[in-house]
User: Which sequence fits this backbone?
């Protein structure tokens, strides 16, 4: 026997893959978070035959998911592990109907049994991948069933709503409203702890429609069918980050929040340059890390969402005294590469 309940395998609201990268068909593109379900099962039929615990794939619920994944050149795989036996089984979700639709996780149960099942959903590439996105509602994807009970008993295993996006690396085009921020001459007598000279500039991002960048249907709306609630129009959701990479004319401060400027003799000249966003937060220089938007909110540029595919964010570059640095005369110039990407 088994108790009726619902259990959800959570997925992030949006999963974005970069096309143009050499993903292997053997390793997951995305490895899901493991979630655990404690169970107890009682073989109360009075039989000496051992009972079994099945995990079944509910194909009638998975048609849209498998079709969407197939259109993108992807497929999902459910990995289930039992804590008692150590048994590890896989159920593949693609359009190949020859794949098995259930796995046996426990056998030969006589009397009461308990344990923990661990679930994980991974995403794999199965061939050429096409740029696009697909939004899917919550699905009753699987069911844990004790044998002999039929599908009316057991535990429903749901997959949370998810939007899958496969985006080419060339998708985002960036520009600045100026290619030069001019601070003008600075008198050495003016440089003290109160010295501050701000200049504003802005960074724009839009969709790269150039020939050779296949954007597929990424800018088109997607009609999400909701069970019993009609449809909902959804769009690509793509957050953007900006990296500021120092090329010449200075070195990053110890916390990477400023550029310590140098003169033409490559000597620290007593000035530093910081860049802040409208909230007064300073950007981090010389970082393109995955955690950059979390570690440094000022490096978040904005996002494409709800059919809006343009972002324009103002920044302020401020020249000030570099703490602990002697003032030296000479020309100063620093060159910074501004690099916009999605995450």
Assistant:
């Amino acid at each position: 026997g088994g108790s009726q309940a619902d259990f959800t395998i959570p997925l992030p609201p949006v999963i974005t893959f970069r096309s143009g990268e050499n993903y292997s068909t053997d390793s997951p593109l995305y490895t899901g978070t493991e979630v655990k379900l404690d169970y107890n099962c009682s073989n109360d039929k009075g039989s000496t035959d051992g009972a079994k615990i099945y995990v079944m794939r509910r194909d009638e619920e998975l048609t849209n998911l498998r079709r969407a994944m197939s259109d993108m050149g992807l497929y999902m795989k459910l990995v289930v592990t039992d804590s008692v036996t150590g048994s590890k089984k896989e159920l593949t979700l693609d359009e190949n109907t020859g794949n098995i639709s259930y796995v046996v996780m426990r056998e030969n149960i006589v009397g009461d049994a308990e344990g923990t099942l661990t679930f994980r959903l991974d995403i794999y590439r199965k061939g050429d991948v096409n740029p696009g996105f697909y939004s899917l509602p919550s699905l009753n994807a699987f069911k844990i069933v004790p044998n002999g009970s039929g599908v009316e008993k057991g535990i429903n295993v749901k997959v949370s709503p998810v939007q899958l996006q496969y985006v080419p690396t060339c998708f985002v085009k960036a520009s600045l409203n100026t290619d030069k921020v001019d601070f003008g001459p600075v008198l050495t007598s003016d440089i003290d702890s109160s010295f501050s000279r701000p200049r504003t500039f802005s960074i724009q991002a839009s969709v790269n429609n150039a020939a050779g960048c296949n954007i597929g249907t990424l800018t088109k709306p997607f009609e999400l069918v909701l069970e019993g609630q009609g449809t909902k129009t959804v769009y690509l959701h793509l957050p953007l980050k900006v990296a500021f990479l120092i090329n010449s004319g200075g070195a990053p401060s110890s916390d990477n929040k400023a550029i310590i400027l140098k003169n033409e003799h490559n000597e620290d000249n007593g000035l530093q340059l910081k860049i802040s966003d409208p909230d007064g937060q300073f950007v981090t220089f010389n970082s393109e890390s995955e955690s950059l938007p979390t570690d440094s909110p000022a490096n978040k540029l904005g996002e494409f969402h709800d059919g809006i595919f343009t972002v324009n964010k103002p920044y302020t570059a401020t020249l000030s005294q570099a703490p602990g640095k002697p003032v030296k005369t000479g020309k100063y110039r620093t060159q910074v590469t501004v690099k916009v990407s999605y995450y």
About this structure: Residues 63-71 form the longest helix (9 residues). The helical segments are 63-71, 292-295. Residues 5-167 form a domain with the Immunoglobulin-like fold (CATH 2.60.40).
